[in-house]
Design the sequence.
């Protein structure tokens, strides 16, 4: 049964998105497995472009729009800016993709701390990609997450009761991790070879697994069916700057909750909750909720995806932002 298409017919936008995201995760896992068997490398940029194209094709009713820079810059990483349009608010966040790569015969991880070679225009050592990602997050005033691409050789399964991921498996092909959590893990991890405490360039898969969740959570987290995330206070939506309690199928609210909970995973609460109220919504997440998105998003929507040849909707964004994704709620759809 095509559940994503059934959900569209029933008018449940978030359920349709959750299953569409889970389907794309299964595709990524199969693609990575096939690439490994054939000895063909699959880079993050290639996988991301295919995933977004297929996501737009699977749920065309939700107005998924994808824009890329006219000139791609691979030097500084490839961050994607996502904007979700709900009923009353927009929610924006950055995403950077990282695939699971082998370090040795029995170890694999993600190159979260990768530092491009060479120097910047001022002659200084280039920043690590995670620093560039968090810098763009600060400049754009939106939170940042990682999309982790995983083959079926994933060593440690995720601990989750996601209703769209039944017992682990292909849907774990793409998982999400808070960039702030990733930065902390980089700071405390030991060097993988010598055990000397320093800032490593990669995070082992087993170090990330406790804080990573299926990316279908971006469309399903506001439902009361998940028991693995920490509880939220009853009126937490007020701290997210929503004018009223959102409907259960609001796509902007669902994405905001997923990013919030990724930032407040069990370990994150231990090192990122120095504030007086540990249950407060972090400013890094709340600032992504807006009455209106970035002006470039409005221009892109105004042109309906058919932009003038001389207009680049990403020209006003930090250099690391290589793509823009817009997902719009259908007017009047009900769960």
Sequence:
């Amino acid at each position: 049964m095509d559940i994503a298409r059934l959900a569209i017919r029933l008018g449940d936008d978030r359920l349709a998105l959750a299953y569409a995201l889970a389907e794309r995760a299964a595709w990524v896992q199969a693609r990575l497995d096939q690439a490994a068997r054939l000895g063909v490398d699959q880079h993050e940029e290639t996988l991301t472009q295919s995933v977004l194209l297929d996501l737009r094709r699977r749920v065309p009713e939700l107005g998924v729009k994808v824009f890329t820079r006219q000139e791609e810059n691979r030097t500084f990483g490839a961050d994607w800016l996502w904007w979700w349009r709900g009923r009353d608010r927009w929610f924006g966040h950055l995403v950077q993709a990282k695939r699971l790569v082998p370090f040795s015969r029995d170890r694999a991880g993600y190159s979260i701390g990768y530092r491009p070679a060479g120097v910047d225009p001022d002659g200084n050592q280039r920043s690590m990609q995670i620093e560039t990602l968090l810098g763009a997050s600060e400049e754009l005033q939106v939170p940042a997450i990682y999309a982790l691409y995983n083959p079926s050789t994933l060593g440690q399964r995720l601990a989750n009761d996601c209703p769209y991921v039944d017992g682990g498996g292909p849907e774990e092909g793409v998982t999400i991790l808070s960039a702030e959590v990733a930065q902390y893990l980089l700071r405390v991890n030991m060097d993988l070879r010598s055990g000397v405490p320093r800032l490593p360039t990669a995070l082992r898969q087993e170090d990330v697994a406790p804080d990573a969740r299926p990316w279908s959570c971006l469309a399903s987290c506001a439902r009361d069916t998940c028991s693995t995330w920490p509880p939220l206070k009853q009126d937490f939506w007020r701290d997210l700057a929503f004018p009223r309690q959102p409907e259960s199928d609001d796509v902007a609210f669902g994405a905001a909750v997923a990013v919030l909970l990724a930032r407040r995973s069990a370990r994150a609460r231990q090192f990122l909750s120095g504030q007086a109220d540990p249950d407060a919504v972090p400013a890094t997440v709340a600032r992504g909720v807006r009455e209106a998105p970035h002006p470039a998003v409005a221009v892109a929507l105004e042109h309906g995806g058919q932009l003038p040849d001389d207009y680049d909707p990403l020209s006003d964004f930090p250099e690391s932002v290589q793509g823009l994704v817009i997902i719009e709620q259908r007017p009047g759809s009900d769960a």
Remarks:
- Residues 3-328 form one domain.
- The first strand starts at residue 65 and ends at 68.
